[in-house]
Design goal:
By secondary structure, this protein is of the alpha/beta class. It folds into 3 domains: 2-221, no CATH class; 247-434 and 600-607, no CATH class; 448-584, no CATH class. The protein is built from 27 helices and 13 strands. The strands form 4 sheets. Strands 1-11-3-6-2-4 form a 6-stranded mixed β-sheet. A 3-stranded antiparallel β-sheet has the order 9-8-10. The chain has a two-stranded parallel sheet with strand order 5-7. Helix 2 (34-46) crosses helix 4 (101-112), helix 12 (286-296) packs parallel to helix 15 (351-361) and helix 16 packs across helix 20. The protein starts with a strand and ends in a 7-residue tail after the last helix.
Length: 614
Amino acid sequence: MGHKEPMSIATALREIQQRRIILPAIQREYVWKPSQVIRVFDSVMRGYPVGSFLSWRVEPETISKFKFYGFMKNYSAFDNRHNPVIDIPTDREVVAILDGQQRLTSLNIGLRGTYAYKNHGGWANKPWSYPERRLHLNLAGEAPENELGLKYHFQFLTKNDVDAAADDDSKRWLPVSEIFDAADAFAMTKIIMKLDGGNDEAIDLVSRLWNAVHTVPSLHFYEEDDQDIERVLDIFVRVNSGGTVLSYSDLLLSIATAQWDGDARAAVHGLVDSLNQTGNGFNFSRDTVLKSGLVIADVGDIGFKVKNFTTGNMAKLEAGWEAMSKSLQVAVGLLSDFGLSGGSLTADSVLIPVAYYVHHRGLDHSYRESPKTRGDRETIRSWVLRSLIVRGVWGSGLDTLLRDLREVIKYQGDSAFPVEALERAMSRRGKPLTVTEALVDDILTLDYGKARTFAVLAALFPHVDTRNQFHVDHVFPAALLDKKKLRRHVGEDGTPQFSQDQIDDLLNMRDLLPNLELLPGLENIGKSAKSPAAWLAAEYQSDDQRSAFLSRNALPPTLPETVDEFSDFFEARRRNLTARIHEMLRPLAPEPSTTPATALVDLDEELAEGDDTE
């Protein structure tokens, strides 16, 4: 490995244009945020080093053995996040970037392309929420005071943004791409002439940026020329996996991409996008999908470790990809049927054993609707929700747990979801679905709006058909427990009814689980801010109907009519929920764990970065 002669930014970008500098398939994709791009341009303007780069000189005979991608130029968080696959002529050598892709891509986007990110408050699934933005430099002055310590005022702007600032003397925006397009000093002079007699500061900014891009040899490359792909992979892993910048799933995807006959990156990204569009939407990552693939392919060691990325394992993953994809889609459909989505699914890894069960039995989407499988689906639903409620189930020691659950399903899951055997295996691993007083207290203090809250309510009240849209509702309306209203609340003698401490207690109780229930969306909207007693009387006409509703939702026999009755109601509902928790979360067939949980977790799993977190 040796040093290459330093080159200017413009030279490097022209090499990228001509596909002489490219990306190997082992590279992950572009992930930098606009603020990071701006920061690197601020460093360029100041003359600061932007770091060294590691490259691989790929000779013509090696090119055909590998996959390569082009650099991102016009990035869109909506529909253009994936690097383009490119065909490289095999009659010339090329330079593949092993380290430094994010910085080079940022320079390429800033000087040649665009960055489309979502407008604040815009719809995530609408293309107009992601307008095209180009990087601009403000020639009217330095950057406003900021926490990043930026000196120069760079900003990504739409055309409308630039037009809106036309009459603002503090904004004089120059598209940075004009600097790159000005290939020589004469072209730079034309930019200066267009400033209409701009002041010396503006001229200095243009000259400074042009020189930083075109004349300063600021990019320093270390180059590897060995054509042994295994050596190159080892170098790449050592450079990129030392910190948290690159996850092991990134490496797995990269190496799979290099070894698959098809396009592994496109296959994984396509599946992730498809899964995340299910129901009300999820937030599954590549980590979860790739881990699912290793589990479903029955790879012995499912850890994200380089030694597991063998050609044989990748071949198994590719051969079973289509069937695995279908199983994951059915499994995610089930989670959606259970009322879960990205906002309420607190641990993505619960998907993996469900998907393995679906795959093991060869189930398709008809399983989700068939009356014959309703009981089995309810068993899965109960297990999934209970495992999401108990903290720590899907945390440390995840790989060991997943292997154990896979073995149980493989040998005992031919005809039904083996929930009792699964819970025994979990108990042996120190992860029992056991109700303790600490768990009860933890559940009862869940807040409105927390992800676990929906899962808890859905588990405690299985009558709720979560395939329909349900809202987490305040039993006693939050609008009636407003701080201002409570302060104005007076007794018969005209004095304030509640002290400040009492008001604080009422406000705290307002959003806790004993004051929450699940109601169908339209029913919740119709309930509005009516008192619980008035709403119940209007919604259910007979005593039997009202009693049935109260019983189903673990509500006391009398609902409060006024805020004065709220505290007593809260305590009564709390007692009812405590009993319901013990009843509904009772393990089906626990086996006490006789081995400390920590003794059952492999040391390398404790140190791995791939564990799911809750």
